[in-house]
Amino acid sequence: MRISCLQENLAKGLSIVSRAVATRSTLPVLSNVLLATDQGRLKLAATDLELAISCWLGAKVEEDGETTVPARLLTDLVNSLPPERIDMELVVRTQALHLKCARNEADLKIVDASEFPLLPTVDDEHEIALPPETLRQMIGQVTFAAATDESRPILTGVLADFSGDTLTLVAADGFRLSVRSAPLGQTVPEPISVVIPARALSELHRISAEEEEPISMTITPSRSQVIFHLQGNAGALQGKVFGIDLVSQLIEGRFPDYNQIIPKTHTTRTVLNTGEFLKACRMANIFARSEANIVRLSIAPERMTVHATSAEMGDSVSEIDAQVEGEPITIAFNVKYLIDVLSVIDSAQVSLETTTASSPGVIKPVGDDTFIHVIMPMHIRSE
After folding, report:
1. Which residue, 23, 82, 125, 282, shows the most beta carbons closer than 10 Å to its own?
2. What is the mean pLDDT of the chain?
3. Which of 50, 335, 333 is CA-nearest to residue 200?
4. Within 13 A of 21's CA, how many CA atoms are on the CB side?
C-alpha cells in the first residue's frame, strides 16, 4: 500500500473514527484503526464490536492495500505533524507503516488487516432518509435521559419508533422520561421499533455536526444492527471527508410502555420563562448538590419560588413570574434533571404540569407538542 493525503484531512478523519476504538479489549486489533484504499480514496475505520465508525478521505493512491496501526499512536503522531502532505507506505519486510511528512519520518508497527472485524455495508433498498438538523435536535433532547447503569441494559438505549411518516425517540432511566417526535418527510413501508444504544446516538450527534444532506438509516436484515450513512461532502467538510458510516449493535429486549408513564391529567399548570427557570435552577444547584440535589418548587398565583437548602452552606430562594392555572402546590425535584431538560428546550416558555407532591411532573415547551419530559418527584419532609 502506497498512499498520500493532506495532514489536516487525515487528522479530521482520525478524530471522527477514534471514539469507536476499544479502550479495553482482549483483541489487540480493536485498539487499532484500519487504513485501506477504497476506489481511489483512503478509508479509516475503528470498532469496539458494539460501535463502529468508518470514513472516507480524499487521497492519492499509488498502490492498493490495507493494514491496521495503533489508533492512539497514529492520532498523536498525525496531530504533531505540520500541515503538509503525508506519504504512507506499507513495508511488508519490517511489518511497519512508514510515514513521511515534510522533514519528518516515522515507522509504526502494524497488525494485519485480516484480523480486523468485517463491518456491514449500507443497503440502499431499505434505507430511511432523516433530516440532519431535526435528528440532531431530537438526539439532544432524549439521550441525556437514558440510563448509564448497566443493570437494566434496555434503559441504556433509546427507542426509535417509526410509524407512518413520524419518528419518535424515547429514553428513560426510571426517574425521568424524554419523548420527542418529528415528521420524516416520507412514509415508512411498515412500522419499525428498535432500541439504539444512547452512546451510538451521541456519537452520531457529534460526527453529524456539519452534515447538511439527509442522513440515511438502515436496519440490517437480522435486526441486530443499525447503520447510519452521512454523505460528508457538505459544509465545512467539503474536500476532506467523502462519507461516514456509523454502525451500532441494537439492544435486544422490550422497551417499557412509555405511554403508561405519561400523566394524562393535571391539577396545576404553570407557564414560565425558560431562561429564568433555568437560571434559578442553576443557582439552586449550588446549594442543592450537597443535599441529594433536592430543590423545592412552591407554586402560587402568578409566581413560583425555587428553594434549595444546604445544612452546611445555607440556602437560596429565587422567585419567578408565572402564569398559574389550578391549585397552589409545593413539589420537589432533582435539580440536575431540571437543568438537563431546560437546557435542551429552545422555546421561550415552558409549562410545568403537576398533580400532587408525589406524582410525576410534566415539562413541555409552550406551543410545541412534539416534545414531552416527565420527571419523578423527590420526597420532602413536611415542615
Report:
1. 282
2. 92
3. 50
4. 22
Query: Cβ atoms within 10 A of the Cβ of 312, count?
Result: 7
In the block, residue with C-alpha cell 429514553: 171
Q: Are strands 128-130 and 215-219 parallel, antiparallel or unpaired?
A: antiparallel
**Cβ neighbours, 10 Å, residue 303:** 15
List of residues 6+ apart from 263 with CB closer than 8 A: 353, 355, 359, 360, 362, 374
Side-chain half-sphere CA neighbours of 168 within 13 A: 16
What domains appear along the chain, each with residue ranges and CATH number? 2-115 (3.10.150.10), 127-229+245-259 (3.10.150.10), 262-375 (3.10.150.10)
Phi-psi region of 198 (alpha: psi -120 to 50; beta: other; left: phi over 0): alpha
The Cβ-side half-sphere exposure at 39, using a 13 Å CA radius, reads 3
The rounded distance, in Å, linking the Cα atoms of 44 and 25 is 20
User: Which residues, 6+ apart, have CB-to-CB distance to 117 below 8 Å?
Assistant: 30, 47, 49, 52
* pLDDT tier at 236, thresholds 50, 70, 90: very low
| Burial annotation 75-99 (CB, 10 A radius, 16+ → b, else e) | bebbeebeeeebbbbbeeeeebbeb
Cβ-contact 370, 134 below 8 angstroms: no
According to DSSP, the residues that pair with 246 across neighbouring strands are 53, 228
Q: Is the pLDDT of residue 293 over 60?
A: yes
pLDDT at position 235 over 70: no
Ranges 27-36, 119-128, 161-170: which has the least confidence: 119-128
CA dist 334 → 110, 270, 310, 338, 341 (Å)? 49, 18, 14, 7, 11
Question: The whole model's pTM is what?
Answer: 0.91
pLDDT of 380 > 80? The answer is: no
Return the pLDDT at 237: 47
Q: How many CB atoms lie within 10 A of CB 207?
A: 21
Worst-scoring range by mean pLDDT, 107-111, 187-191, 214-218? Answer: 187-191
